[in-house]
Amino acid sequence: MVTHVVWDWNGTLLDDLPCVLDVTNQLLTEFGLPVLTDLPSYQAIFRFPIAEYYADLGFDTSPGGNFEAASHRYIELYRSAAHGCVLHDGAVETLAALRRTGLGQVVISASEQQNLAAQLAPFALDAWIEQALGLSDIYAASKQTLAQGWLESNRLEPAQVVFVGDSAHDFEIAQALGARCVLFSGGHHARAHLETLGAPVVDDLRAIPALIAD
């Protein structure tokens, strides 16, 4: 029986896709690299680990390269720009609906912990979200270890958990841990790509409670 939902944050609950495209293109311009022409171009190239995505964008991820400097500059730009981001349509309604069924809900994100906490704070989601866990650095290699540790510390079996996210990385984590996954098409990977993974894909977060109840 499902007892918990693990939410991704960026792109899943938080609608930051246009913001990320703008910030990425500002970063690319500052480093003299070609910009991305539109959202589909971004969605086609974005992936985890973030270092590999940066390499695809043209940054030098070798020792002594500009990846670290670019990562710090991106976070600086994103922190400023993300203040204008809002939650996806239906996010609060969905969180409330799942809570009414008695499910526990947590956020596990590849964002750095302090950045994640700062982003969550304005939305006052404590009534529905029990915990928000982020990484210890800004390089977003993977959140799988974080998710595994959360499962173990709460003595949960993978069958008790459904992961909800907007990227192939969310699906890969759920697969690796043996948990179910639902994918949302409004984030950082296009629906066409998500559909190749084998998990249910929703266009509206409000469809999730019915899927979890099945």
Keywords:
single chain, alpha/beta, 214 residues, two-stranded antiparallel ribbon, Rossmann fold, 2 domains
Question: How would you sum up this structure, described in words?
Answer:
The chain is of the alpha/beta class and 214 residues long. The chain has two domains: 4-16 and 85-213, HAD superfamily/HAD-like (Rossmann fold, 3-Layer(aba) Sandwich); 18-84. Helices cover 43% and strands 16% of the residues. It contains ten helices and eight strands. It has helices spanning 17-30, 39-45, 50-57, 67-81, 91-100, 113-120, 144-153, 168-177, 191-194, 208-213, and strands at 4-7, 14-15, 86-87, 104-112, 131-135, 161-165, 180-184, 201-202. It has a six-stranded parallel β-sheet, sandwiched between helices. It has a two-stranded antiparallel sheet with strand order 2-3. It is globular, with a radius of gyration of 17 Å. 36% of the residues are buried. The mean pLDDT is 93.
Number of strands: 8
CATH topology of the largest domain: Rossmann fold
User: What is the CATH level 1 assignment of the largest domain?
Assistant: Alpha Beta
For the terminal residues, how far apart are their CA atoms? Answer: 10 Å
List the strand order in the largest sheet.
5-4-1-6-7-8
The tally of helices reads 10
Low-confidence stretches: none
Task: Give me the CATH superfamily of the largest domain.
Answer: HAD superfamily/HAD-like
- Helix/strand order, N-terminal first: EEHHHHEHEHEHEHEHEH
Sum this structure up briefly.
With 214 residues, the protein is an alpha/beta fold. It has helices spanning 17-30, 39-45, 50-57, 67-81, 91-100, 113-120, 144-153, 168-177, 191-194, 208-213, and strands spanning 4-7, 14-15, 86-87, 104-112, 131-135, 161-165, 180-184, 201-202.
